[in-house]
Predict the structure.
Amino acid sequence: MFRKRLSLSYDPTAQKPVIRCSICTGEQAAGFQDLRTGEFREYMLIRSERDMQDFAKACGVPRVEKIY
């Protein structure tokens, strides 16, 4: 299966890419957290380590922080 290359644009002065993890279910979602308000905007569901790596690469960061 071929994976579509993601290229995400976001404002690094106002947002940061994060993975939101549920403590209860273990579900993980990738998205962007507003640095001023802390509000999370979901972008995609993380189903595997590969999804997490693809999201980090598309954001141009080596590693994405996890929040709970």
